[in-house]
Amino acid sequence: MMAATRFTSGDPVADRRASYAEQLAERGDILAAIEVLTGALEIAPLWTAGWFRLGELNELAGRGEAAIAAWERVLVLEPQDPFGASLKRDLAREVPLAESMPPAFVELLFDQYAPGFDAALVNRLGYRGPQIIMQRLLAGGFTRAARVLDLGCGTGLAGEVLRPRADWLEGFDLSAGMLAIANAKATYDALEKYDIAQLSPGSRQYDLIVAADVFAYIGALGGVIGWCHASLAPGGILAFTVEAAAADEPPVILRESRRFAHAQDYMETLLTNAGFDAMDISECVVRQDRGCDIRSLCVVASLAQVRGHRESDGEAQLSV
Q1: What is the pLDDT of residues 215-258, one digit of tens each?
Q2: What distance in Å separates the CA atoms of residue 232 and residue 53, rounded to the nearest whole number?
Q3: Cα–Cα nearest to 4, from 41, 76, 52
Q4: 19, 141: one domain
Q5: What gap in Å lies between CA 84 and CA 167, rounded to an integer?
Q6: Is residue 107 part of a domain?
Q7: Which sign does the torsion angle of CA 284, 286, 292, 294 carry?
Q8: Is residue 148 part of a domain?
Q9: Residue 109 placed within a domain
Q10: How far is Cα 185 from Cα 165, in angstroms, rounded to an integer?
Q11: What percentage of the chain's residues is helix, strand, coil (to nearest 5)?
Q12: Which of 140, 178, 136, 139 is nearest to 159 (CA)?
């Protein structure tokens, strides 16, 4: 939950009421909390964090339509959607509509998480995505790559695994806070701030592109997979992890965690259509959530040593 009190309304009276609403919510009196927070929003009607929290409280109270209305209000006030209101709204509907995370939401989320990210992900959630990817790469005969890109590098957890086997290591990420921590580790030769869901093909080519636990924040993967294909040198390898959708679920599904899961058949079709020549897809557990293993897929796809004529357009908006 994103407590409204973490983002001030700018009005001390409204903030005090919101703080009281949180106390009521902690005691389990959700209806009273809704009433008090609604009063705070009458004082500060442009407070997007307050409207987002009102949506969460209505959701807890089982008031789905009221929750959706509050999140719609957030989107009217702040279309860039830094709180991920569109995702909450779509999850509350019968058919999720979002195809990717709002970039402003992802950036804010990870900027907030950055200081304690490594400890939370590794120590509390048992995250081992980079290690799983490297194991699969080595099992397939990989030894070393001249140019490596860590796509969605975060704080550099994958970079620490990739560095000993990379002559040149570059990282892209949307979060400036994450990049600052990665930079302090002195693991990368270059770090750049990009939204990986909005990349377009450029002149750079890589021998290995890795995306560890990144595509969970992108629903439709056609654009980024196409970009990776276009950005790999002949014989290049793309390796990544995704959360696995169950057999009875849609090929791409937005979960309550506000992370996307993808079906194996979807990945196979996407990689084949993009022009990859070989692929290895294996089940794994990349992380846990609330003590439960998150079923995932580790994917390693490669190109032939000589590139064919078929090239993906990468579908993007930002040249790199």
Answers
A1: 998 888 988 999 999 999 999 999 999 999 998 888 888 887 87
A2: 43
A3: 52
A4: no
A5: 38
A6: no
A7: negative
A8: yes
A9: no
A10: 17
A11: 45, 25, 30
A12: 178
Query: Tokens 């009102």 correspond to what residue?
Result: 54
The CA distance from 109 to 276, in Å, is 33
Question: At residue 317, does pLDDT exceed 50?
Answer: no
Does some domain include residue 105?
no
* CATH number for the domain that contains residue 154: 3.40.50.150
- Which residue, among 168, 197, 192, has the nearest Cα to 182 in the 3D structure? 192
Q: Are residues 162 and 311 part of one domain?
A: yes
Token match 């992108």: residue? 218
Question: What is the count of structural domains for the chain?
Answer: 2
Mean pLDDT over each residue of the chain, to the nearest integer:
86
Distances (CA, A) of 300 to 243, 247, 277: 15, 21, 11
Q: Which residue has the tokens 């903030």?
A: 15
Sort strands 260-262 and 252-254 into parallel, antiparallel or unpaired: antiparallel
Query: For the ranges 101-115, 175-189, 306-320, which has the lowest average pLDDT?
Result: 306-320
CA atoms within 13 A on the CB side of 286: 26
List the CATH number of the domain containing 84.
Answer: 1.25.40.10
- Are 301 and 194 found together in one domain? yes
Torsion of CA 242, 246, 252, 255, to 10 degrees: -80
Question: Residue 210 is part of which domain span?
Answer: 114-319
